[in-house]
Amino acid sequence: MAHGLSKSRLMSFRQCPRRLWLERHRPELAEEVPGQDAAFATGHEVGDVARQLYDPAGDGLFIEYDQGLAAAMARTREALAGPSAAPIFEATFERDGLLVRTDVLERGDTGPRLVEVKASTSVKPEHLVDCAIQSWVLESTPARPKSVSLAHVDNRFVYPGDGRYQGLLVEQDLTQETAPLREQVPGWVRSARRVLAGPEPAAAIGTRCWTPYECPFQGHCWRKVDHSVADLPGIGQRLDQLLAEGHYDLRELPEDLVTSPDQRRVWRAAQRGTAELSLAARQELRSYGSPRFFLDFETISFAVPRWAGTRPYQQLPFQWSLHVEDARGRLAHEEFLDLSGELPARAVAESLLEATRGSGPVFMYTAFEKTCLRTLAAFCPDLRDGLEALADRLVDLLPIAKRHYYHPAMRGSWSIKKLLPTIAPELDYAGLGTIREGGAAQQAYAEAIAPGTDAARREEIRRDLLAYCGQDTLAMVTVARYLEGAV
Ligand code: SF4
């Protein structure tokens, strides 16, 4: 029996034949991929703007899929046969059982032009494959494209406001680059069909499991061990080699295959099963003096900017949490959250400068807070001096933690969410509301400022955002105190 294929299934096959097989035959084994819903939402948002940009007259035709493949193909054929030269969106085609839906099909004097729209900020290798598959299908139809382009987000675009998004997308002509790949498509289709017709194929696990896309079947394919060679920091492509040589459990990996100092620490801790804490941490932390501040921002970044003067994917702070510890170890907490829906830069900057008055180190975890202060200064030039002075007080706690502490349960990561449970399991993020990581905070913020969100839901989000960001700075206090042996 010939198996029907879609472009996305063929892309799955290109990533890993087993992934394709599992998607078709064992979809129930797929696990949720973090951030996938947000990525889809972003893609749709960029797609909506693309339709405005490619159809300024508003007479383009959108091919619905509500009545299935045959109806969508019939509508596409009708549109192509009609007198209009307006663009067609989601035009639907099939060749040898391979289904594609095109983002934009431009027509006119120069002939059909295929434009694939992506929310990314550059052309990636997988985009060439994507375009090649579509153009191979279309070359057998009346819509045979004269050129194939990819339109992606231009992160240098500055939104002027009032819905004017001309310039948000930049096009790259990929006609030449995709030509050699296009010739390979029939072979991919044949191979994919063979895989689908057979039993579950074997496939080597490795970096392919998250490249170019996070595969949802890792729970099925990866054997569960407490310490995997994939935990080695900075292992990169060498992971594939280690796995191919049969190394899987980090505790069984010969020492001479561990190369960098960070990898040696992770390997050593896995062998011993105990944490490493250097006594020099106390001296280093105490050298910064007091009072000491612990700062964390939450930010939002929109692929399609909402506020005039902002750029695509620009990280814009909308919330901060600040714990302040005085010389006697007493702790105070301040916080700010702007759910007005307006550009929050000024409100965030002014409230933060007020809360951090005086002197003393301001600890952050990663250098991200420094970037946020720079962003705030760009939007509030009159506050630049104060924000730069605050940036000069920033101290990154992450490299300090990295120099002085590692626990095998951190599995090769010094992220605060990996570190915290090893020293203060009672501060578990799982005990928070619906927001337990930065991506969820972004989504919640976007929901809170959406016009359709009612007051009760906005209040619930406010509560959860404050709890989440407050937990982040409390976690930093806890880490600092632990490292200096105060707890
Ligand atoms: S987890 Fe890896 S090996 Fe398993 S299907 Fe996905 S990509 Fe293939």
Any idea what the CATH superfamily of the largest domain is called? Ribonuclease H-like superfamily/Ribonuclease H
Number of strands: 14
Going by helix content, strand content and strand pairing, the class is alpha/beta
Biggest sheet statistics:
7 strands, mixed
Terminal Cα span:
67 Å
CATH topology of the largest domain: Nucleotidyltransferase, domain 5
- Residue fraction in strands: 15-25%
Low-confidence stretches: none
Would you identify the CATH architecture of the largest domain? 2-Layer Sandwich
What oligomeric arrangement do these chains adopt? Answer: single chain
- What's the mean pLDDT score? 95
State the shape. globular
Q: Give me the Rg, rounded.
A: 26 Å
**Cofactors, ions, other ligands:** iron/sulfur cluster
CATH top level of the largest domain?
A: Alpha Beta
Description of the molecule:
The chain is of the alpha/beta class and 487 residues long. 43% of the residues lie in helices and 15% in strands. It has 3 domains: 193 residues, Lambda Exonuclease, Chain A, CATH 3.90.320; 52 residues; 203 residues, 2-Layer Sandwich (Nucleotidyltransferase, domain 5), CATH 3.30.420. The strands form 3 sheets. Strands 1, 2, 3, 4, 5, 6 and 7 form a 7-stranded mixed sheet that branches. It has a 5-stranded mixed sheet with strand order 11-10-9-12-13, with helices on both faces. The N and C termini lie far apart (67 Å). It binds iron/sulfur cluster. Iron/sulfur cluster (SF4) binds next to helix 2 and helix 7.
